[in-house]
Specification:
By secondary structure, this protein is of the alpha/beta class. It contains 17 helices and 17 strands.
Length: 478
């Protein structure tokens, strides 16, 4: 089995060696869509990381259902269907619509702070996430639009790729190089997702063009440029000669396939610019676009939360809180079992914060979690609510572990699959690597109390100013 630390470079070597970005079906070079899903499936297959089965569903039926359930909300803003209404703005921002509750509002920690503080005129467009919209939002100028509206109504005109062709063109190379074999179920799940972008790409392009023509932006900002419909959006923007800017939504390094490539220009549907958190990231990653187009800006939401950090009143007179952070690896449950068994429940409470994609499947995914663990399977509070009340934060690989560094907490990284992603924070001394359950228990019981000062070195400061300045540079260069 290939070591986790070598997985990213090996994956990139395979796609380059076999020229996967040139592979076509029905005139579409579809590896740009398949890359994300295949990577997820292989990580799960080899290392048990993540849960690719969360996208094993009938998307069209779920979207139709969400429109009935959330019919009282504006699924599609009327302005996109009225040719007489103009919406011309300098900036179009597609929100990261994974929202969490913040007071009375559901907010996006990735895009809302930006949307509220852009210097130039702009609109924010939001589409459904996990079955519907979250209202109200605190954003002015938000427009709701479902880019999948009416997509696929002419199914007879579209041909899906089949398993045999997909294996011959793509999968067999990974099977041979990684010494694995994809099951029929795994191929079906992959094809279910990839075929949406093979069959309905033209419909999606048409819907994106409707939005862009209506607003006529100078630049477009969005997240997750590596996922299917965002890949289509990038294609549209390149065709229309409008600069595209991706905003990161997680702390990625040179171990993450999502952003690393063996060479510049292999993937011609990458955004023109990527706004990253730090110079560390810019230097570490083998980007698929020129490095001068990687702009260091920081993270506005985290900076806002940093400025809200206050004394934890009464912290000394309550139980110590251990916060486990999910990263999709079920092995984390064995650490919880040992702690739950050996720590005094009158002195410690243990919380497990799930990733949003795990909310519906966590009982099947983590069957070994003890009953005494408090599992957070909702978005009623953002992660900083839990970080503020915590004394100790434990995880394997997650952006949250970098976020935890701005709080006076102990951070422990478990030496399990893909923990190499956290080597920056371990090397800095802000987090400690532990190798098994007994070592973690010993650290918790025997380590002397230590208050850490906030550490913001993993994120550039003055994020909003940086973003506005970089947007100006890009627009002025058009």
């Amino acid at each position: 089995m290939i070591h986790e630390s070598d997985f990213c470079s090996s994956f990139c070597e395979i796609e380059t060696k076999y020229k996967l970005f040139d592979v076509e079906f029905n005139g579409i070079k579809y590896w740009k869509h398949a890359r994300y899903f295949v990577r997820h499936m292989i990580l799960h297959k080899i290392y048990g990381i993540g849960n690719p089965f969360w996208f094993d569903y009938d998307r069209k039926n779920e979207w139709k259902l969400s429109k009935y359930i959330h019919g009282y909300q504006r699924v599609t803003d009327f302005v996109f269907h009225n040719i007489n209404i103009g919406l011309k703005k300098d900036i179009l921002l597609f929100s990261f619509n994974r929202r969490i509750k913040d007071g009375k509002n559901y907010v996006s920690p990735v895009t809302d702070e930006i949307s509220l503080k852009l210097n130039r005129s702009h609109y924010t467009v939001e589409s459904p996430y996990c079955g519907g919209y979250y209202r109200p939002t605190p954003i002015r100028g938000i427009k709701y639009y479902d880019v999948w509206k009416n997509v696929g109504e002419d199914d007879k005109l579209r041909i899906p790729i089949n398993r045999g062709c997909f294996r011959k063109q793509i999968l067999k190379f990974f099977e041979n190089e990684f010494d694995i074999e994809f099951s029929n179920d795994e191929k079906r799940i992959l094809l279910t997702n990839i075929n949406f972008y093979i069959m309905y790409r033209n419909d999606l392009m048409k819907n994106y063009k409707k939005i862009i023509k209506k607003i006529s932006p100078k630049v477009v900002l969005y997240t997750c440029a590596y996922i299917g419909d965002m890949v289509v959006l990038t294609e549209v923007l390149k065709e229309m000669n409008i600069p595209s800017i991706e905003l990161l939504h997680g702390y990625i390094t040179e171990t993450d396939v999502t952003y690393n490539y063996s060479d510049i220009g292999l993937n011609n549907t990458l955004p023109d610019y990527i706004f990253v958190y730090s110079q560390i990231q810019k230097d570490l990653i083998k980007w698929g676009i020129p490095k001068e187009n990687i702009r260091v800006v920081g993270w506005p939401w985290l900076e806002k939360k940093k400025n809200e950090v206050s004394e934890n009143i009464g912290k000394q007179n309550r139980k110590k809180t251990l916060l486990f952070i999910s990263c999709g690896n079920p092995v984390i449950a064995k650490y919880m079992k040992v702690l739950e068994k050996n720590l005094d429940c009158n002195q410690f409470e243990i919380i497990f914060k799930l990733h949003p994609t795990e909310y519906k499947v966590w009982k099947e995914k983590y069957p070994a979690i003890p009953d005494g663990i408090q599992v957070i399977d909702n978005n009623e509070h953002d992660i900083h609510f839990y970080l503020k009340k915590s004394d100790i934060v434990v995880g394997i690989a997650s952006t949250v572990l970098y976020e935890a560094a701005i709080y006076p907490v102990l951070i422990y990284i478990l030496a399990e699959g893909m923990h190499e992603r956290m080597k920056i924070i371990i090397k800095s001394g802000r987090a400690k690597l532990v190798h098994d359950e007994i070592e973690l228990l010993s650290c918790i019981l025997n380590n002397p109390e230590k208050e850490y000062k906030e550490d913001f070195s993993f994120f550039a400061e003055h994020a909003i100013d940086n973003i506005n300045n970089e947007i100006e540079r890009i627009i002025n260069d058009i």
